[in-house]
Predict the 3D structure of the following.
Amino acid sequence: MKVVGIIAEYNPLHNGHIYHMEQAKKETEASFCIIAMSGNFVQRGEPACADKYTRAEWALRAGADMIVEIPQCLAVSSAERYAEGAVKLLAATGVVTDIAFGVETENLDALYRIADILDREPPAFKVNLTYHLKEGKSYPRAQFDALSDLDLPKNDLSVLTQPNNILAVEYLKAIRRFAPHIRPVPILRRGNNYNETQLTGELSSATAIRQALKEGNDSVLSAMPLFVSGAMRFDSQFPVTLEDFGPMILYRLRSMSLDEIAALPDVSEGFEQVIARAVRTSPDIQTFLDSIKTKRYTMARCKRIAISALIHISAELSDAILQDRDNLYLRVLGFLTCSRGLLAAIAGSGSIPVILRNSDISNCTELAKSSMAVDQFSTDLFGYVLGREVHRDSQSAIKL
């Protein structure tokens, strides 16, 4: 049995995602497709446009057989940690044979060469990386410059100017380290670039789609399947934005001690002092983020810190979940009833607990339960913002 895994956020699900899913199943000849999907808050430190159960249902309607949640403490992380956590989850199913991911270059050799360097960390690279970090650069910038200092083929570094390629390198590295039995399947992206802000018809970027939704531009409807575009454009509760959580984030940070802020993921070198000062003089979330952003602390990193504070993610919990497989768990958000055989296969081959309902939590470690409490709290916060109860994690997974 071949099972292809895909790591995604579907924020929102659009035509390019459906193309990617179809190509993944076609190229791998897979019998089933499992999506490891971020929960209510996504990797760059923002709320998803819709709650995780709504997005899981979209994915099932688009052709996936099962959706499992990337725990919030791993989903709201750097690209490296996000990729590692998602790959470990898919590997722990015991059934995934391939992992498919999008790329924005045909120069696949460059992606493999860079992933190899980042995995091996040769002495010259480590020395260069340390030097650039001491210059006060952000980690991604320091990593890029450290690679630039090596004798790489001329065009290799150009691939790292695209976000899908950056994630692809991290997926390749994580597969090599933690799941060498799984085959990586790069799929060339169609349509415009990930960060393109202008709509380009039926194959537009998620960034452009979110911007168009914010502006009320009806041209965006053709870029998504009807079951997504209807909800995103005409349901007043969507899309959810960072501003919806702004007052809660500022309140949470103002109520935290310096030690508590210092214990958040991504906070180091006294940055808690900067956060504590800025939050007390900022009238809104964007002003706060703009005031703490620096060359070393990118906007995405600052947003992740803010969301981690909001939903009570600590660096200690995040590290424990990532580093010890015993603390991982497979929260099934939804599955097709015709794919029950996949669930049975995972139950027989998987190496971590499968969570379909509340009673399954008893099989988990205490740290896993703490992580699930964060996941549930994020769902409760979404319900508060949406003005309704979201399908709760204690209920059974959704079925189509």
Notes: Strands lie at 3-8, 32-38, 66-70, 98-103, 183-188, 330-335, 354-355, 398-399. The two ends are 22 Å apart (CA to CA). The mean pLDDT is 93. The longest strand covers residues 32-38.
